[in-house]
Every structure is written in C-alpha cells, then in structure tokens.
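Regression test attached.
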Amino acid sequence: MDWRRKMAAEPVFLRDDVVAGFLSYDELIPRLEEILGKFSRSDNTDVVQPVRSVIPLHQHNGFMGLMPAYIAYEDLLCTKTVAFYRRNENLHLPSTQATVFLFNPACGNVIAVMDGADITFKRTAAVSAISAKLLMPAQAEILCILGCGHQAVSHYEIFTKIFSFKEVRVCSRRLETAERFAARVQGPVKVFSSAKEAVHGADIIITVTNSSQPVLFGEWVKPGAHIAAVGACRPDWRELDDALMRDAVIYVDSRHGAAVEAGDIIQTGVEVFAELGEVLVGTRPALRNKTTVFKSLGMGIQDAVAAKLVFDKWKSSQ
Ligand SMILES: NC(=O)C1=CN([C@@H]2O[C@H](COP(=O)(O)OP(=O)(O)OC[C@H]3O[C@@H](n4cnc5c(N)ncnc54)[C@H](O)[C@@H]3O)[C@@H](O)[C@H]2O)C=CC1
Ligand SMILES: O=C([O-])C1=[NH+]CCC1
C-alpha cells in the first residue's frame, strides 16, 4: 500500500448514553482534584493547557470554543469543541453542544470521539462541588441554585449527593422552567419566583444561567456565603454585580482563563486571590469565613481526565 494512504485504526465513537453510563462522580472528583492541583503548582510543566480559543457566532447568538489539553505524566492528549447557543433553550435543544476527541499522542491520530455533553455537565458540577467542599461555611444549611437548565440539573445531583442541606431552593428567569426542574429532579426543592427571595439567607449559591447581565447582587448575599459562579464565560457577560465581586474573595479555575474570559472579573478589575488548585495543594488558603466567589470557566484538562475515565471503562468492557 502507498505509505501516504496508510491509515491508523478507526476511532471509536461513544454516544452520549454510553459516556454517561461510564462516568461517575465518585471517580471524577478525585481525578479533578488531582489535575487541578498539578495545573496550579508553580513548578508545573506536565499539564499543558492554553486558554480556550473562541469563535463568536454573533449571527446565531452563540460561540464555539476549542479546548486542547496535554497531560504529559499520563501521556493524555485531548481536545473538546464546545458550542453554546442561547437560542437552543427555546428550541428544546441543549444550549451546550460538545464533542471530545482523544488522540494517540505518539502519532496524533484520533482514537476516540465522544459526545461531550455529559462530560461537560458532570465535570463542571464536580468542580463547583470541590469549590464548595473547600470554601462554603462549615454549617451550610441552605443551597440556592439560580438558573434551571442543564448545568442546574448536574449541580443539583452532585450537591445533594455529597452534602446534606436543610433546604434547596431554585429560581430561573421563567417560573415554569423552575417548576419543570423541580418535577424532574429526584429530591426536595423549593421553587421561588424572585431571585432576591431565593438567595435570602442562603449559605451557598450556584449561578448557572445563560445571562449576560448580573443575576446576583451583593446586597442580597449573606456575609460568609460561598458562590459558585458557573455562567458568564465571555468577557462581556456578567452574572454577579460589582458590589459582590468587590466584597468577596475571588477564586478561579485558571488565572489565565479568567483574565481573558471572565466578564465578572475583567469588568470589575478585581484581583484573583487564588486558583482552586492552589488551595488543593496548600499554597493558598481557603478563606471559609469570608464571602467567597469561585468563578468557574471550565478547562480542557477537566474534560481530558473525564474522557480518559470513560475511555478506560469502555475499553475494559470490550
Ligand atoms: N464554567 C463552566 O465550566 C461551564 C459553564 N457553562 C455555562 O453555564 C451556563 C449554563 O449552561 P446550561 O445550563 O447548559 O444552559 P441552559 O440554557 O440549559 O440553562 C440556562 C438557564 O439559565 C436561565 N436564566 C437565564 N437568565 C436568567 C436570569 N436572569 N435569572 C435566572 N435564570 C436565568 C435560563 O432560563 C435557563 O434555565 C451558560 O452560561 C454556559 O455557558 C457551561 C458549561 C461549562
Ligand atoms: O468549559 C466548558 O465546556 C464551557 N465553558 C463555558 C461554556 C462551555
């Protein structure tokens, strides 16, 4: 055969239900803690992840991001493409459309293509849960989730699985979305029509909206609360107001990512106190007694470790 036509083995394609079946929070959380810690070490050379490159698709009210990552000590090479379309909400399609590619790092050929929806939902919620483990008040009784879409579901799942709250509250832009959410999830939840009332007295607040304007205001927030701010991942999008950003201690997943993408940080000019990984490895403290914000943007290394868990499970099932 002509050497120029020689092909590597065909990649396997793993559908969303297959990926979901192989991805558990119990395995994901320790892997995420490990990789976040390694990423944030000052002597890190092993975990390579450029800031996501993004193409805005103004005509469709969306954007597409490319999220490559290489984890040298595991020889793990991965890329996710992720698109986010606000309009999909009205079309009853997931707003996030993601595909994960795993490569053979020795030759560059693709070994697996996976639907990336479940990976994106679960790893994002798992990282928020890690932030809460480190930063929420010791006696956290009330959890409030603002936004009732796909991320809200995975966040509800993991937060109610690993913590016990006296009360879980939700509020979305439309009351019927919050009511649909409450009917869908397994477990108690109180639906609110006002965000201000929903967050009153909450110890932990998760913002998972597709809003580009603040949905959470400092004057509503109980001092000492922890906020996991998951939406607003564009430099011109906001979820939190200036007062909250200025009063809180700010943690991020990646300082570089935050400086380029986090509207809440860029527009207020506040200083980042620490990366979550720095807290995990003990080089920066977890200031649990202060009001804390974890500004999450999502990282390619999170997708990479999740995809490896899925691929290894799939391989051993063959
Ligand atoms: N940090 C990370 O790693 C990731 C962040 N995201 C971001 O998370 C956000 C949520 O994603 P999905 O749940 O997939 O989107 P989705 O479209 O499924 O849900 C968004 C929800 O926000 C609600 N909402 C919009 N404006 C609101 C307001 N003012 N108050 C309360 N609720 C409001 C909508 O009604 C909807 O229920 C998006 O901004 C997305 O870009 C998504 C993936 C990963
Ligand atoms: O990390 C991720 O997959 C995303 N962050 C914002 C939109 C999608």
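Expected vs. actual: identical. The chain has a mean pLDDT of 95.
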